[in-house]
Specification:
The complex is a heterodimer of chains A (about 525) and B (about 300).
Chain A lengths: L1 H25 L5 E6 L14 H10 L4 E3 L5 E3 L2 E6 L5 E6 L13 H12 L14 E8 L2 E6 L6 H4 L10 H7 L13 E7 L3 E6 L12 E6 L3 H9 L5 E2 L4 H9 L7 E14 L9 H10 L2 H8 L4 E3 L21 H10 L11 E6 L2 H16 L4 E6 L1 H9 L5 E7 L6 H8 L16 H11 L5 H17 L2 E13 L3 E2 L17 E2 L2
Parallel strand pairs in A: 1-10, 14-15, 14-16
Antiparallel strand pairs in A: 2-3, 4-5, 5-7, 6-7, 8-9, 9-10, 11-17, 12-16, 12-17, 13-17, 18-19
Chain B lengths: L1 H28 L4 H5 L6 H10 L6 H13 L13 H36 L4 H15 L2 H15 L11 H31 L2 H8 L4 H29 L3 H6 L5 H10 L3 H29 L7
Helix pairs in contact in B: 1-13, 5-6, 5-8, 5-10, 6-8, 7-8, 8-10, 9-10, 10-13, 12-13
């Protein structure tokens, strides 16, 4: 028996020891990795990117100093390592040597100086020039050292750096191609640009000289398929290898299909869907009315019936995954409390309360959600009129504070509470700056201004926790749900994963095809 | 005839200037700032102001209009606000796909529509007549996206005979062409039938039959030519409309045509792109009208333009 156990132990050890080697050995090179996006990327120039579609394609071609890993931890890319001065203002990045642009030239610190200054230059007309507003100076003290000096310490600075406007571009190619650089991009990333048939497909090929080793697949084929249902048909037929925009209507079916159920990857996304309330407009300038509205909304029903479980009921402003996120109990659906609050506000059973306008941009899902909210509010005596408009007109109306109630969804630009609580609730950002609810609370302003300059950690998080609690009490928003990002892949697609920022951040150079 | 064509071509100039002016003004009246839209949900006001200034969007309207008109006359339609690519090249890159789809769907429409219309007219009140007209009615009423998705599901997804979507060889063209061709086919069938029935009752057809001409000759030579005037009018207008893009079919089949480009430009308030696509569409309609008018003269010797 002892001998048998001994043999068993040795065998188990062998299995454990050799497993990683055997898995490693099975990784295969070659093949084409095919996916689809819903619209033609507007541009592949990192200085101009504002949307996740362009970002998804461009991040295969370009690299920055750092990136997020699957757990949203900052990991080095072209920066080998970095140090931060004691006052939190100076960031010194030591760059890897031997990283090359696709034209063969080595990436140096001067290239980062050029790329960042290019975004700041008004002539570039970068829509993300404001992401550079915290920077006082960028310099290259040596070939492989890049130094950034901030005007004031910024706790989220490193978290911002994976954003596209901070990626490195080769000066000679930008100057050679001029405005066409966004259509024929040259970067230093794991894939090289090959071709782009607008509204049809983008083709990239593996950069065999990539500093971290060549990608496993030979090519990436990114098709542009506007209709998500059609894309799912293509996927099920085997014409796409992975796809991210799974429509909620297809989710139940795919999740219950044995072929796909283990190939759907879901992660909480750093985003919150909400109903904003214009705090400057009567009767919504009354906190009690806003609170009543928030308590009258049946969030669970919206998530279950309309979203078919493809989202999570919101419990606050900050979604899970953001540093500073506090686990809170769900905002209860309490029509009785809503009625009491209305009475307290001087509108017993909604009497005397004018009909409120709930604006939303045209979309079947938004319409269904707003209709559900309209019906919930009616039950407590609040009459709501729905107003739908196209996105351009809608944005203008929200920016100008011409709405009363409005629906929006905020997805983080970078994983930090600042990107929610300062951007969306600080009174400096009224209107287009992000605070469409025209909310103002001096304590929230002070807390979010102060936290901005603090180093990441418990002290900073506690300020955000306090600010969030005050905001929830003031109710400029009725948060509805937290987003979940998801992608579906073929069973033979291996090592496919993405960060909490969404599937557009998937590191496709790590993906290999087991077929 | 030459004088007529020259006169018609000269008349297009004020028409086009009028269209350009109306489109230009409309885009400025419609709410929504193109730069604000490009910023995403949050737009830093200072950055918006900086870009608007750089692009000359804060200049007085007459200044912007003169600048735009001068550039258009020089053949420069500007660059798209959204993509920063030249408007003309964006339109021309999509035109081959649009042209292919338009011609293929017109082929489908003409072949099905003319055959069904002629057979129905020559066999009036037969089973074929009734059934083809019922099918034609269904064809006119069926929503394009429904037909498209149905064809795609059946022939692409379930049977796997044809590609589901995309742009490529002729196999990719079949389903979108049928989807887009069904409605004009139904329309042409109904118009051909009624027009044919009217022609068949004319005296000259009776004369042709009376002098002992074979029925085929009566139908395909004598009656057909007069029927074609109606059909050519429909074909001309349908083709012009298809050449300016077919947004639903293009969207469902992921076909890279002008329709998607135009609608996207309107949604994004991409002024140069909207102006470019509207002008392009206008030119197509003007020329389609001209060709239809000229073809009348060839089809009916009674029509002359001198």
């Amino acid at each position: 028996m002892k001998r048998f156990l001994g043999v068993l132990l040795v065998l188990s050890l062998l299995v454990v020891l050799f497993q990683p080697i055997s898995i490693g050995a099975t990784k295969k090179y070659g093949g084409v990795l095919r996916t689809a996006v819903t619209s033609d990327p507007p541009t592949l120039d990192p200085a101009q990117i504002t949307d996740t579609t362009s970002d998804m394609v461009a991040r295969q071609i370009f690299d920055g100093l750092v990136d997020y890993d699957e757990n949203l931890k900052i990991v080095p890319v072209i920066a080998r390592n970095w140090s931060i001065s004691k006052d939190g203002k100076v960031y010194t990045f030591n760059l890897r040597q031997g990283v090359k642009f696709h034209n063969g030239r080595e990436v140096t610190a001067e290239d980062f100086v050029y790329s960042w200054k290019r975004v700041m230059d008004p002539a570039t007309k970068s829509k993300r020039a404001n992401f550079m507003e915290d920077i006082a100076k960028v310099e290259a003290p040596s070939k492989y050292v890049f130094r950034v000096t901030l005007k004031e310490p910024r706790g989220y600075f490193l978290q911002m750096l994976p954003y596209s406007c901070f990626w490195v571009v080769p000066k000679e190619e930008v100057e050679r191609l001029g405005p066409d650089f966004g259509s024929k991009p040259v970067g230093s990333g794991p894939f090289k640009f090959v071709s782009w048939t607008h509204d049809d497909k983008v083709i990239l090929e593996a950069n065999k000289d990539y500093f971290a080793g060549r990608p496993y697949v030979d090519r990436l084929e990114i098709r542009i398929i506007p209709d998500e249902t059609v894309a799912i048909m293509e996927f099920e037929k085997g014409n796409l290898d992975w796809y991210e925009n799974v429509p909620p209507s297809e989710l139940d079916r795919l999740k219950s299909d044995p072929k796909w159920k283990d190939n759907i990857i879901e992660k909480p996304e750093l985003g919150t869907y909400y109903i904003g309330m214009n705090c400057q407009k009567p009767p919504l300038n009354n906190k009690l009315v806003r609170q009543a509205i928030s308590y009258a909304i049946n969030r669970e029903q919206i998530v279950k019936v309309i979203m078919r479980g493809s989202a999570m009921v919101a419990t606050g402003i900050l979604p899970p995954g953001i540093p500073g996120y506090s686990k809170r109990p769900p905002i209860p659906y309490d029509p009785e409390k809503a009625r009491r609050l209305l009475k307290q506000a001087g509108y017993p059973d909604g009497k005397g309360l004018p009909t409120l306008e709930l604006a939303f941009n045209k979309s079947a899902t938004h319409q269904r959600i707003c209709e559900a909210i309209q019906s919930d509010l009616k039950k407590v005596g609040i009459n709501v009129e729905l107003v739908q408009m196209d996105w351009a007109q809608y944005l203008e109306k929200v920016d100008r504070g011409e709405t009363q109630l409005f629906r929006l969804g905020w997805i983080a630009d970078y994983p930090d509470a600042d990107n929610f609580l300062w951007v969306l609730f600080n009174s400096k950002n009224w209107g287009p700056g992000g605070n469409g609810a025209y909310y103002k609370n001096p304590i929230v302003d002070e807390l979010t201004d102060k936290a901005k300059t603090m180093v990441p950690g418990a002290a900073r998080n506690s300020l955000y926790k306090r600010a969030e609690a005050i905001i929830l009490e003031d109710a400029p928003w009725a948060p509805i749900y937290f987003y979940i990002s998801r992608a579906i892949k073929q069973p033979y697609v291996m090592d496919f994963d993405f960060s909490g920022m969404g599937p557009f951040t998937a590191k496709l150079e790590k993906v290999w095809l087991d077929k | 005839m030459t004088n007529y064509i020259i006169r018609r071509l000269l008349l297009t100039i004020p028409t086009l200037i009028g269209i350009i002016t109306i489109t230009f003004l409309l885009m400025y009246v419609v709410p929504g700032d193109p730069i604000r839209i490009l910023m995403g949900q949050r737009g830093d006001p200072a950055t918006i102001a900086m870009i608007r200034k750089q692009m000359g969007l804060d200049d007085p309207l007459p200044v912007q209009y003169i600048r735009f008109l001068t550039n258009v006359l020089k053949g420069d339609f500007g660059r798209s606000y959204a993509t920063n690519r030249p408007v003309l090249s964006e339109i021309l890159t999509r035109f081959p796909a649009t042209l292919k789809l338009a011609l293929a769907s017109m082929l489908v429409a003409s072949v099905i529509g003319l055959s069904a219309g002629i057979i129905s007219a020559t066999r009036q009140y037969s089973f074929f007549d009734y059934s083809s007209m019922v099918v034609a009615l269904m064809g006119v009423s069926a929503p394009v996206f429904w037909v498209g998705l149905l064809l795609m599901w059946l022939f692409g997804y379930t049977l796997g005979w044809l590609p589901i979507s995309g742009y490529g060889d002729i196999s990719y063209l079949i389903l979108p062409a049928i989807t887009l061709g069904i409605r004009p086919a139904a329309y042409i069938a109904r118009m051909t039938r009624s027009s044919f029935l009217e022609v068949l009752r004319q005296d000259y057809i009776r004369t042709a039959r009376a002098k002992g001409l074979p029925e085929k000759r009566v139908i395909y030579i004598h009656a057909m030519r007069n029927t074609l005037i109606t059909v050519v009018t429909i074909l001309g207008m349908e083709l012009a409309s298809l050449l300016s893009g077919a947004v639903l079919t293009e969207t469902i089949f992921a076909w890279p045509g002008i329709g998607r480009l135009s609608v996207d430009a309107i949604i994004k308030r991409d002024h140069p792109m909207v102006q470019g696509t509207v002008l392009f569409t206008a030119i197509i309609f003007i020329f389609a009208n001209l060709i239809v008018d000229i073809s009348y003269a060839f089809l009916d010797p009674r029509i002359r333009y001198e």
